[in-house]
Amino acid sequence: MKTLKLLTAAGLLAMSSASYAESGDYINLQLGISDVDGFSNGLAVIGTFGRPVPRVHENFSIEGEFTATILDPDRPGIDVSYFTMGAYGVYSYPLDQYATLRGRAGMVYSDSDYSGTGSSGSHDGFEPSVGFGATYNLNKQMDLIAEYTIIESDISHLSAGIQYRF
């Protein structure tokens, strides 16, 4: 049920972001392999809204991102789930007319819950986050995107999806 609520919130955020979009803004929708230290991999959904900031640099943008696990990482007797909300500064380096490398750094609020046989708990707080990736241009408005993001010291994800530019 919690996952359904989080996915609904992410969808509403993406739709409302699209209504405020300006030329050059973009949204990313990705699926990621969620890697939590000491647990088997899970699956996360990632939604991002980005806006270029040419006043800073022609290749700089800012992003707001929401991530939630949809298949929880686990180990025998213990499951862990998390969601994050983050803000990033992103620098993109075009290699040619199709491929672009990107690096990003920012802060995320993460909320992790774990449950197991006879115990449960949670951890939340703000953490620095970094990532790198690449995009490949398919047409004027659509790119493929792949990224690796370290959310906190023991959570990271490798993700891929699409980027739509307005």
Automatic annotation (TrEMBL):
Q: What is the lineage of its organism?
A: Bacteria, Pseudomonadati, Pseudomonadota, Gammaproteobacteria, Thiohalomonadales
Q: Give the signal peptide as a residue range, or say none if absent.
A: 1-21
Q: Which species does the entry assign this protein to?
A: Thiohalophilus thiocyanatoxydans
The reply to whether Transmembrane helix figures as a keyword in the UniProt entry is: no
Q: Entry's InterPro entries?
A: Beta-barrel_OMP (IPR027385), OMP/PagP_B-barrel (IPR011250)
**Superkingdom:** Bacteria
Question: Could you identify this protein by its name?
Answer: Opacity protein-like surface antigen
Gene3D superfamilies, alphabetized: 2.40.160.20
Keyword terms, alphabetized: Signal
Q: Which parts of the sequence belong to the Outer membrane protein beta-barrel domain?
A: 8-166
A Pfam family per the record: OMP_b-brl
